[in-house]
Write a structure and sequence with these properties.
This protein is 41% helix and 13% strand. It is α/β, with parallel strands linked by helices and 372 residues long.
């Protein structure tokens, strides 16, 4: 049974009623539980857990320190293209938005790589809009080897691909795929995706299973917090993670918790997530899964990011650009969304070190897993 089948069989209204009717005793039980479970995750995501956030933070900090020490992995997004064939009302790259479209040439990609490498990064996240014909597997296959020559760890955040296409990219050096469901509410999903292949809710839900079968090392999951009820979307995200870990235990998993940000032609959050709510989310997932990597991007403001490192966050970006060619030739009108933390890499690292954390630029070499 696929996760889509499991998801479709869940009693959603009953689960939502349970989420919002949990009491203090269930929260206190979840707080002392030695092993995360879906029922504990529900308790920790519930409104009843809000008075316990300080206790959640203490436990989350202990677990994170024990598993990850004071290390924070550093990565940077590199935007390949802002072409997109989808209509998504929350995204600056949406096809109807009147902005200049651009895909990097190989020479432009090399310029971006050169600048990023000089800043010390060895882990890169390749990002593009979702345009299957102009920015599809052939384009990715031509660009990936150029990137892999320079970076030990290469992740991609692009449109969902077929299993054989993921396998092809793995053979070219792909290490990780980040693919976010945006929301697990199928009705809300259809409301926000009105044209293009991204309308296919099931294909997107099924994608992490194709990625895992293709042999990708790490799979990144996430939802766009603000599109729908963030507590329930986070709970469904937990169900998805739980399913994947049971069926594809060889893969590693990471989580991103992006909040809806202003963008060209974008919308305002339907259900905003406060800073306090974001802390609750991070702590709830750390208590749910002690091995889980959690990343925090420059969507969040500097002061908040600096105070969240110890609570469960394991990876961050710094000095990010969200446009193709943004490191060598920045043009603000090409941005996917506005970032909040606009500090330079050195400023971000200095603030991190001042709080006792260690920036980790390299923690992976693909040849290591092939040693016999």
């Amino acid at each position: 049974m696929s996760f889509y089948d499991e998801l479709s069989s869940l009693p959603r209204e009953q689960l939502k009623l349970s989420l919002y009717s949990i009491g203090p005793k269930e929260v206190e039980s979840a707080l002392v539980s030695s092993e995360g479970s879906l029922s504990s995750l529900m308790a920790l995501l519930s409104p009843a857990a809000e008075p316990y956030i300080e206790q959640m933070a203490v436990r989350a900090k202990e677990i994170t320190r024990r598993r990850f020490g004071t290390n924070i992995g550093m990565y940077l997004p590199l935007y390949l293209s802002n072409l997109c064939a989808n209509e998504c009302d929350y995204c600056g790259f949406s096809m109807s938005n009147k902005l200049k479209r651009k895909s990097l040439t190989s020479d432009e990609l090399k310029q971006e790589i050169s600048i990023i490498k000089r800043q010390g990064f060895d882990s890169i996240l390749l990002v593009s809009g979702e345009h299957e014909t102009k920015v599809g597997i052939d384009y990715f296959a031509s660009m990936l080897p150029l990137v892999k020559k320079q970076f030990s760890y290469v992740a991609m955040e692009v449109q969902p691909l077929r299993e054989d296409e993921y396998k092809h990219l793995v053979n070219l050096g792909l290490d990780a795929v980040m693919l976010y469901q945006e929301t697990y509410n199928p009705t809300t999903y259809q409301e926000h995706h009105t044209r293009g292949n991204k309308q296919d809710y099931r294909y997107r839900v099924d994608s992490p299973e194709r990625i895992a079968r293709a042999g990708v090392d790490k799979i990144g999951l996430g939802v766009l917090l603000g599109l729908d009820d963030w507590r329930f979307d986070a709970l469904m995200l937990g169900y998805h993670l739980h399913y994947l870990e049971r069926h594809f235990w060889r893969c590693r998993y990471s989580l991103s918790l992006p909040r809806l940000r202003p963008c060209t032609g974008g919308i305002t959050p339907k259900m905003p997530l406060t800073d306090k709510g974001l802390v609750q989310l991070i702590c709830a997932f750390r208590l749910f899964n002690q091995q889980l990597e959690i990343s925090l991007s420059t969507r969040e403001p500097a002061s908040l990011r600096d105070n969240l490192y110890g609570l469960g966050v394991t990876h961050i970006s710094a000095g990010s650009s969200t446009e193709p060619g943004g490191y060598s030739n920045p043009q603000r009108q090409l941005n996917q969304f506005e970032i909040s933390d606009d500090r330079s890499v050195s400023e971000t690292v200095s603030a991190m070190v001042a709080k006792g954390y260690i920036p980790v630029w390299k923690d992976w070499q693909s040849e290591w897993i092939n040693l016999s």
